[in-house]
Amino acid sequence: MVRVARGASAAQLTGGTVYGPYPEAGLEQPFQLAIDGLKQEGFTEMIPGWSQFERLQSGDPTERCRGAMRLAWRKRTEAVEPILKAAQAALDAKRGEVCTLVDALGLLGDERAIPIARQLAERKNLSRRRSGVEALRNLGDLDGLASARQRGFERLPPPMQTALSAIDESDESSDAVKQLVDAAATCDPRRAGMIADVLYEAASPVTVAAARRILAKAKIGRPHIWRYAKSVLKRAILRRDGKTFGFLAHAVEHESKTSKGVQANVKSGLDGKKKSMRIFSPKAQEWVKRACWRFLRDIAHYEPQKYAAIAAEVLVHYSSADMKPPKGLVGAYGHCYLLGRILWGKSQRYRLRGVRWRYRSFSAVNAPVTGREEAFPALWDAGREAYLRVLGGAKLPEVFEFGLAGLQRHPTILAHASVRQLVRLLDVREDLAQGTPLLKLVVGELEKRFTVDEPDFGILRRLLMSPVSRRPEVRSLLRSWLTKTATLWTRQEEFVFTFTFAVDAGVRNEVAKLLVDAFRAQEALRKEFAPGFLAILQKEEKEAGQHAAFAKVARESLVAELGALLDLDQLLTWLDEGSMSGRAVAGALVGARPDAVAALGLARIVAMANDEVAAVREAAQGILRMAIGSLREDPSPLYALAESDWPDTRDVAFSLLRNEIDLARLGINGLIGLCDSNDPEVEELGRELIVRHFEELDAEDVLYRLSEHPSQAMQTFALGLMHVHLRGGYVPMARLERYFRSVLLDTWPSRRLKYGVIELLLSRGMDDERQAEFAAALFDLVLRTNTKSDFDRVAFALACLQTKFASVTSDLKFAEPKFAEPGAAE
User: What are phi and psi of 182, to 5 degrees?
Assistant: First the structure.
């Protein structure tokens, strides 16, 4: 409704008349009719104090500029003529106020301002050129903008000009932006600010994104950067570009945390002469901070529908890196001026002193929050979609909590959110979202939008291609959707070749499993999709495992179809030169061919069995089983595979050696070769086969060969066989003298092994005199080592041998017992 009241002043209005109600979309016309009626009665719009039109006639240029901008904010088109006259006078007199006056004309949007804006756009002075170009943009002068754009590109270094000519500026892909940023990195670092300003002036999606990224990498408070960073900030204000404004407004605050500026010789923007100036001084920092808030405040007053969105772009840049240790009543984020203005503008806990936020008292530090503290809460409620941007981009707990509170007040905004916004909400940092209902609410909204009867595969595809799919809640949701709609998407080429590139490995495996089931069930699908799978698998992988899901599907369901598309030579080339996933499939296809053994040869098969790709090894293992006839004739390849670095290959080699190769082919050399391995598992296999075939072997030869093994485990194994299988007599014992010596004189002996050898020597020495002399000679060697722990056992063994065989001599002498004479005292 429209209410019209009259009175001597704003404080002395009578009740007035109410007109309406009107539909909200059609309210502007009756409101303007009411205004026109009042003007016809003689009323004029007045500003408290004095009229903004009167300001344009002031002798103070600051007042003229303020008046012009206020009229521009209010869209007072009748002010175009006086502002235009003031701007022309300032231009003729070469006064700096012309920039602000032309900015105001651009915001008013009257074409009469085009000539003066073009004049400024042609100037070399940065501030004049900026005001002229941005006014032309707001005035819609395409010809003037094209000329300004060409002049701007001519100022760029050659590498930037080359990069710009090679890209499509309407392409918003990260690759195009990266090309420009990389080109800027090759130029003089002192020109980075100028490059960013020219790119932002061009105003295409790619150049704007590149300008932001270049400034993000540069220290904006440095000489040759700061003036251009301010220029881009002012351009963003004139364009109402919240994203760039928010980034630079925060960057100024962040840089001011540690920088007090630097003294440098730079050209003045007024007279072009070099002067020593303080760049990014504390005074300049404070002025920019206040100017940013004035812009936000004016947006709230004059363009309220834009306030929440622009303020949200400021909030999302604050993080823990902006924190300072609390000091007195100044909290950790007390120096974050804009953050406080937006979040605490109506707070009863804080007060603003200068550009710092302080608690009102020490009791307020831990006081609970009562009511809403943010500035312009009604505008946040009106632009409630901005809460989604706050939640999706928040890095600071305070900012996230503010966004979450807004979502809880207006839960219906999720129903109006785009899929892209919902995906961004799912990507919120885990430490922020943990313990909050955010993920549950977003997942619930996605479930509402995706129905199995009429599935929205656009939602499914966006989630599959997003890193948020790695979150347990989202992964579970995706698996459920994929399974329930498998009969639909597995038959459509668009989805088969898109879903298989899902970001999360677990989800990719689920996609592959469902495709395998679908392909196995329908031959028509296999024939339809096999060429596409082959084309992808033959491409190079940009990152390891990128095509792993395609390889899984191919190996488990498309072997026959893919094999029919390639001959053996092509397969072997693919096996040698393909990607990891491609080689896995090539190995499976080679292994499925009946002529693989003859074509590859055992040497190539052995190499495949040791390949780093599991599927290639698996194929080689299958071929080995097919080549068992050749291996029975010559099992030597299995000896090498038994010591493979890959457990699966070793298991196959062990199985074939145990169950498929007979003793005649293994031979004593093969068995001893296994026992000589440095691999404990291979040694164990050798021992197992020796025990199994011992009755068929020359026992003495086996024991002699085993006795030469340096491993204590094998020496212990040999000793056990000697106790049972060593022939009687001196000769078999003497043949093993080297073995006995090595065990008895080992500097790092196994006590169990040494005592076993002593026991064996004593047992065989008690059989006959010659073996006793042999054992005694070895025992003497032990005595000379003066090893106390062995002395008693060796002495006992020698005593036994000398007692039975008087002819046995030893270094150990036993004294005759002396008996006491009869009658002597005890």
Answer: -65, -40
What whole-number distance in Å separates Cα of residue 572 and Cα of residue 191? 54
CB neighbours (10 Å) of residue 402? Answer: 22
Instruction: Report the alpha-carbon distance of residue 118 to residue 185 in Å, rounded.
Output: 32
What is the rounded CA–CA span in Å between residue 617 and residue 611? 6
Q: Which two tokens stand for residue 565?
A: 């598309």
Helix (H, G, I), strand (E, B) or coil at 223: coil
Residue type at position 391: L
Q: What is the CA radius of gyration of the chain?
A: 45
SS3 at position 769: helix
Which DSSP letter does residue 330 get?
Answer: B
Average pLDDT over residues 5-18: 81
Q: Which residue has the tokens 């009167």?
A: 54
CB 776 within 8 A of CB 761: no
Q: Say if CB 551 and CB 615 are below 8 A apart.
A: yes
DSSP for 708-770, written as a single string: T---HHHHHHHHHHHHHHPPSSHHHHHHTHHHHHHHHT-SS--HHHHHHHHHHHHHHHTT-HH
Torsion of the alpha carbons at 705, 711, 714 and 715, rounded to the nearest 10: 80
Q: How far apart are CA 661 and CA 666, in angstroms?
A: 7
Q: Which residue type does 418 have?
A: S
Neighbours of 623 (CB within 10 A): 22
**Cβ atoms of residues 584 and 615 within 8 Å:** yes
Residues with Cβ within 8 Å of 74's Cβ and at least 6 positions away in sequence, in order, are 52, 302
DSSP 426-480: HTS-HHHHTTSSHHHHHHHHHHHH--SSS--HHHHHHHHTSGGGGSHHHHHHHHH
Report the distance separating Cα 80 and Cα 158, nearest Å. Answer: 41
Q: For residue 698, what is the DSSP state?
A: -
Residue 663 clears pLDDT 90, i.e. is over it: no
Q: Cα(177)–Cα(171) distance, rounded to whole angstroms?
A: 9
Beta bridge partners of 17: 4
* Measured CA distances, 467 to 327, 460, 474 (Å): 40, 13, 10
Q: Is there a contact between 538 and 530 (Cβ–Cβ < 8 Å)?
A: no
Alpha carbon distance 539, 579 (integer Å):
7
DSSP symbol at 225 = T
DSSP 24-74: GGG-HHHHHHHHHHHHHTT-----SSS-HHHHTT-S-HHHHHHHHHHHHHT
Give the Cα separation of 489 and 347 in Å (integer). Answer: 53
pLDDT tens figures, 352-361: 998 999 999 9
Which has the closest alpha carbon to 352: 369, 373, 371, 372? 373
Span between the terminal Cα atoms of the chain, in Å: 138
The pTM of the full predicted model, rounded to 2 decimals, is 0.69
Q: Rounded to an integer, what is the distance from CA 115 to the centroid of its chain?
A: 51
Q: What is the helix (H) or strand (E) element at residue 262, kind and residue range?
A: strand 262-267
| pLDDT (average), residues 62-84 | 91
pLDDT digits (tens, 9 = 90+) for 243-290: 999 999 999 999 999 889 898 887 766 566 788 889 999 999 999 999
Closest CA to 502 of 539, 456, 548: 548
What distance in Å separates the CA atoms of residue 136 and residue 202, rounded to the nearest whole number? 12
DSSP state string for 630-659: HHHH--HHHHHHHT-SSHHHHHHHHHHHHH
User: Which residue type, as a one-letter code, is found at position 367?
Assistant: A
Sign of torsion, CA 167 168 170 172? negative
**Which amino acid would we find at residue 593?**
R
Q: Tokens in use for 511?
A: 């996609």
The per-residue pLDDT for range 207-237, each reduced to its tens digit, is: 999 999 999 999 899 988 999 999 999 999 9
